[in-house]
Amino acid sequence: MRYFLLLSCLALFSATAFHQGPKKIKLPKAYVYIPSGTYAAGGKTVSVQGFYMQAWEVSNLEYNEFLFDLKREGRTEEYEKARVRPEGWATAAVYAGAMAEKYHQHPAFENYPAVNITREAALLYCQWLTKKLLVFNPEARFGVRLPSEVEWAYAAQAGHAGFPYPHGYSLQDAKGQFLYNFRHIGDESIHSNPETGQIEVRPSALVPAGPAAPVGLGPAPSKSNAPNDFGLYNMSGNVAEMITGEPLRTKGGCFNSTGYDIRIDAPDTFAGEAGASPYVGFRPVVTVVGK
User: Fold this and answer.
1) Residue pair 278/116 in contact by the 8 Å Cβ criterion
2) Percent of the residues in the chain that have a pLDDT greater than 90, as a whole number
3) Beta strands in 7-162 (DSSP E)
4) Contacts of 251 (CB under 8 A, 6+ apart)
5) pTM, to two decimals
6) Distance CA 53, CA 150 (A)
7) By the 8 A CB rule, do 237 and 178 touch?
8) Residue 255: pLDDT above 80?
9) How far is it, in rounded angstroms, from Cα 284 to Cα 125?
10) Which of 238, 233, 235, 242 is nearest to 276 (CA)?
11) Domains, the chain
12) pLDDT digits (tens, 9 = 90+) for 49-87
């Protein structure tokens, strides 16, 4: 089974379909063009230059191709920095043992988001992808990197200023189907505090803390649920996505976040966390400088 996976990884990039975007560079069809525009936040409106963004979170298959290349080229030090830390599942899943054993290598999970990797690992992936894309664009000047907070939020709103979620103002569509992968808390968990008048989540309804605590069901495939109007999948929920900045910063929330915490402008619940996390993945952006 592992041999089959390695063959799949080796063939992935060579079999990728390419398209030529508005900036006249060839990119995998996994990338969509995010047009220039403006984004309003904190009482300020900022201009955003157009860029490309991967339509879904980097998948296990895509990430494993990167690791395979590092190993094949004997880049041992970089491989050690980039390798997956499956032990992270110990604090994030009911079936932690099975997830640690299967999630990152089994073909059934190849289209699921790559998690349990460090920010340094994600940056190494961006460097590797830049070199890969230069083969098809030898005269272009561009870079692959993590998005800025403004770029990420602008792309998530897809041109709809004020949207709290990528599809609008609700977590559900017109048929009542949930649009995102997040942790649902029912009405039975909501409490109006008679002393403060504040709405609270009842402590008795919360899951107990600790590694054994059952949490959200886990990530869905990177390309799942409906895309927003820019063609981007899972910008809210599923796995939180790394953005630029030190220390680690993320946007979008994850499968274990509440509906409130997967809002586009929600506070970063993973800010400053050290090491790899089963709740955090990434999606690169490509910016073109010129020819």
Assistant:
1) yes
2) 65
3) 18-20, 26-28, 31-34, 37-41, 44-48, 51-54, 141-145
4) 149, 152, 153, 156, 240, 241, 243, 264, 268
5) 0.87
6) 13
7) no
8) yes
9) 9
10) 242
11) 2-290 (3.90.1580.10)
12) 999 999 999 999 999 999 999 999 999 999 999 999 999
